[in-house]
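RECORD TYPE: inverse folding
INPUT: structure tokens
STRUCTURE:
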């Protein structure tokens, strides 16, 4: 059984498109989901240490127990937890990737943006 992991918003509108995208992107059957409202903002700001530690602990479990082959951090249009415009959210995603890579250097970590049509786009790193 192959798994990957997503750190996603709680917004139900993004769940299925992201899961479908990740199943194809990482060629896996299962996607472990870690959800927080505005997770990309939480990880990029690095202020809410309780939430960050909770996310990292759940990520550790997914990687160590399910041998997750990849991780995605998601931002999306019309996010209540992170109401910033797309360009700002892309920057939050990139900063979140940097934080996650400090913890997990040997696993592929990608960013995803879900647009106003609920289409998933991979974030290009700068």
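DESIGNED SEQUENCE:
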């Amino acid at each position: 059984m192959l798994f990957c992991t997503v750190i996603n918003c709680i917004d139900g509108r993004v769940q299925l498109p992201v899961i479908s995208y990740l199943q194809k992107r990482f060629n896996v059957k299962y996607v472990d989901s870690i959800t927080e409202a505005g997770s990309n903002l939480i990880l990029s700001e690095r202020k809410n240490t309780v939430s960050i530690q909770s996310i990292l602990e759940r990520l550790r479990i997914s990687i160590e127990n399910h041998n997750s082959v990849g991780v995605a951090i998601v931002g999306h249009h019309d996010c209540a937890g992170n109401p910033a415009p797309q360009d700002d959210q892309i920057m939050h995603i990139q900063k979140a990737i940097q934080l996650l890579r400090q913890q997990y250097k040997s696993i592929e970590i990608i960013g995803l943006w879900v647009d106003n049509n609920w289409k998933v786009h991979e974030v290009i790193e700068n």
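NOTES: The first helix runs from residue 12 to 25.
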